Model the fold of this input.
Amino acid sequence: MYRTHTCGELRIADKGKEISLAGWVQTVRKFGAITFVDLRDRYGITQLVFSESLNSQLDAQPLGREFVLQINGTVLERSNKNANIPTGEIEIGVSSFVILNKSAVPPFTIQDDTDGGDDLRMKYRYLDLRRNAVKKNLELRYAVNRAARNYLHENNFMDIETPFLIKSTPEGARDFVVPSRMNPGQFYALPQSPQTFKQLLMVSGYDRYYQVVKCFRDEDLRADRQPEFTQIDCEMSFVKQEDILNMFEGMIKHIFKAVKGVDYTEAVQRMTWEEAMWNYGNDKPDIRFGMKVLNIKSAFTLGGEIVAKGELLAGSEFSVFNDAETVVAIAVPGVAEYTRKQVDELTEWVKRPQIGMKGLVYIRYNADGTVKSSVDKFYTEDQLRAVAEAAGAGKGDMVFILAGAEERTRKAISELRLEMGERLGFRKNDEFKLLWVLDFPLFEYSEEDNRWVARHHPFTSPKPDHIEVMIGNSPVITNAAEYLKHPYAQIKANAYDMVLNGNEIGGGSIRIFQRELQEKMFDALGMSKEEALHKFGFLLGAFEYGAPPHGGIAFGFDRLCAILGGSESIRDFIAFPKNNSGRDVMLDAPSTIDQKQLDELALKLG
Ligand code: ASP
Done:
């Protein structure tokens, strides 16, 4: 037996016990004839004391950092107690030891605050994983996984594995493909998600399915994306949207409780996609704070009813606003006293290419009730005060206004709102705010292909009262500039996203389950009958054999863990992540393969 206890286990109550420990040498400190060693394992650190009698053995076999050590000894009370660690009241008087393995000097220190840069740590990820900070993240990941599984199991969900080698049907992201040796010239694809399989399982009668499953998408990696990532993927039969929302609201609340001890008792807020875009400029708003967008002028209308407040700034010669498609504002609390320099810096911030605005207009609502603005010349003080108040500003607040093309300006005001929320400390890591965003558009216009693409995926059903619009109208877009006026632009989907603190953590939909409607959907997406049959014949076929109504959702497991762990980066919560160029720097993958392998696969490189 290598060990009787772990390095995080022994306490003062164990005083006098004869024990054995095994672990890694964290530090070695010599004090005269006595040697102190901190021994570390997954569970903690225990201090060892080697007395003079072991010195000749230590001289013959010196200990170094990260050596694997096994010791036998007695639990002693420490004279110099360390209140910072759970084992701090004891130490082990070592009677004998064995070096189980030596270690080269590690390239960085195995400590919470390591001196290793990102690349180095990723290259030696197996050492990085020894660090407490990383270990805590993986522990959290496991806790989230366990909580989700427990909840789903309690609710009759069955974990069913689906294949990784499937058929390439690029729609959405690009597929990773795998050549087939036994079928030369043919390729499998790795699944972007188990979407069609889980739907087939519904046809097969497995009415509650889940899987914690890898998904693969060959996308350009923006920050915080991985080419392979994990979803908690779920599907249910005989459900309406409301059933899904309730079930998975329950799952997230269960996870909060089990992992963070947080009782999220309030009902999860809901808003439509249009409301989210209108009030926050964003389909995944962070609702931990206010600062709602004031729509002064907008090409986007809320449900076709609520129109922008153009009258607030009417009758002026200010061409920047007069000529813009969209003019939007937010009121930022308590910053009326921002200096010129601070405003200039923010102006530069909105002019950065990522935001892409031409400038920033401000209205200071001073503490004494006076109003000052960078557009004083063009508007009366009363007009400016009216804008400030409509944006929700009070004395001491500052209003920022952006103007430009609809899509870009709406995105920019959302970014500015988030940035100000961050700067003012409104985005607290330990506060959790969930939100359902509902009623997404079914289609999105693809400028590149001049056609409609599925906003979610092609299996999402239209809202029942929008089916007529889809069936009764041709998908052809004759006037690309006015695509928003096409009837398809108004069709809403039975689709929903769950948003946590401004991050989309899950998304799903009620599915189409009739062959005719699914065929109509493929047609709307510009797919010919032959192409639809070639790609999705299996699904269309299955829908002819008693497909039940069904719907589901998938949660981004890595991201959920990162948010619960208070981190920006999903990589910190993945044991062996890829870097931003999609490389595994430890394995040095992807890499070339042998000519022999290429030949076997009947592949010729160009
Ligand atoms: N398969 C979908 C996705 O990966 C989620 C779903 O509709 O359940 O986004």
Residues 193, 195, 507-509, 552-554 surround aspartic acid (CB under 6 Å). The mean pLDDT is 95. The first helix runs from residue 55 to 60.
